[in-house]
Amino acid sequence: MINELISMNGYGSYVWSAFGFTILSFSTLYLVTRSQYLKEKNKFVAKFGALDPKKSEAAKSQSIIKEILSNNQSI
Amino acid sequence: MFKIFNPNKIFSVTSKAPKYILFIFVIVISIGLMEALIFSPEDYKQSHSVRIMYVHVPAAWISLSIFSFITLLSLSGFIFKNKNFFLIAKSLAPSGLVFNIIALVTGSIWGKPTWGTWWAWDARITSMLILVLFYLMYLIAWRIFEDKENVSKITTFISLVGIINVPIIKYSVDWWNTLHQPASINILSKSTIHSSMLFPLMIMTAAFALFSLLIFLMKYNTELIKIKNKGLDRL
After folding, report:
1. Do A67 and B12 count as a contact with CB atoms less than 8 A apart?
2. pTM of the shown model
3. What's the CA gap between A22 and A27, in Å, rounded?
4. What CA–CA distance (Å, rounded) separates B196 from B200?
5. Which residues of A touch B205 (CB under 8 A)?
6. Is residue A11 part of a domain?
7. What are the pLDDT digits (tens) for B34-86?
8. Among B43, B51, B97, B183, which is 20 to 30 Å from B197 by CA?
9. In sequence order, which residues have a C-beta less than 8 Å from that of residue B152 and are 6 or more positions away?
């Protein structure tokens, strides 16, 4: 059964390489996009932390900034 | 009219959605892979190599759909003077490009056992290759042009020229004598594909669509944070 699934009547190398390439592309795209997101978010948090209290209060009035600073957007 | 697309309002949704989309995607792709690799029957002519269809066809469909969306959004951005449309279009492009590459590579792998060659300058393959070039031009334009006014004009122009290629890809198998077979799935008339193959194909298409939605949301959130980063500099 397992051997049959791997060999697929001699077409296994074609089928598995096509599916393998797809999964590899998905994983790479996901990891690259995730790292870009985290990099940008960390940059934002660092910049926000360096603001003086008056400016940070003003910035915090925007709901989107509160969302970025909150930790519930893990991906 | 398009207040619903205000980034400040939708970020609370777009920032939380990816984890739920990822969860649903994992379930759907697991079912799709089992159907495509184990439960679906082999073809009487192509034997097991037909299974490549379950990644090749959805990837091609999604890449074409994404490019069409990009053009529609870019054009809408100009008509309704809404910059968020350009941001949505820009966030869609990376997954469109990757799906286009997947369609070409898996098509090439499928071509070897079916046609006896990895590559042929067939009308559909060539037009799909041209679509990759349009995706690349579109993404490079966003990278190299700093001025926002100019970049939205240039990327819209690229998408408008590129969209001419989409019906060429779709109808290339009818207009020219190509190695590709005519479409097996028709919305307006009866499909010629058996339901035992149609079901896994639809599941895999749903999984690929969910994945492109996931990548789009992650990219879109990154772009919004980038804008807010620039906003902090101006404070």
Report:
1. yes
2. 0.91
3. 9
4. 7
5. none
6. no
7. 999 999 998 888 889 999 999 999 999 999 999 999 999 999 998 998 889 99
8. B97
9. B74, B77, B78, B83, B86
Q: Alpha-carbon distance B77 to B187, whole Å?
A: 30
Domain span at A56: 33-75
Q: Which of B1-5, B9-13, B36-40, B48-52 has the lowest mean pLDDT?
A: B1-5
Is residue A10 classed exposed, middle or buried when 0-12, 13-18 and 19+ CB atoms within 10 A define those classes?
Answer: exposed
Query: Is the Cβ–Cβ distance between A67 and B7 less than 8 Å?
Result: no
Q: Which helix (H) or strand (E) holds B106?
A: helix B83-115
Set of chain B residues whose Cβ sits within 8 Å of the Cβ of A11:
47-49, 51, 113
How many beta carbons lie within 10 A of that of residue B38, not counting itself?
11
In a domain, A64, yes or no: yes
CA nearest to B101, candidates A29, A49, A65, A74: A29
Which residues 188-227 of B have a C-beta within 8 angstroms of A?
211, 214-215, 218-219, 221-222, 224-226
The pLDDT tens digits of the residues spanning A14-55 come to 999 999 999 999 999 999 999 999 999 999 888 887 777 777
Query: Which long-range contacts (C-beta less than 8 Å, at least 24 apart) are formed by B45-50?
Result: B46/B113, B46/B114, B47/A8, B47/A9, B47/A11, B48/A8, B48/A9, B48/A11, B48/A12, B48/A15, B49/A8, B49/A11, B49/A14, B49/A15, B49/B110, B49/B113, B49/B114, B50/B197
Instruction: Look at B22 and A75 and tell me if their CB atoms are within 8 Å.
Output: yes
Cβ neighbours of B80 (radius 10 Å):
12
Residues 6+ apart with CB under 8 A from A50: none
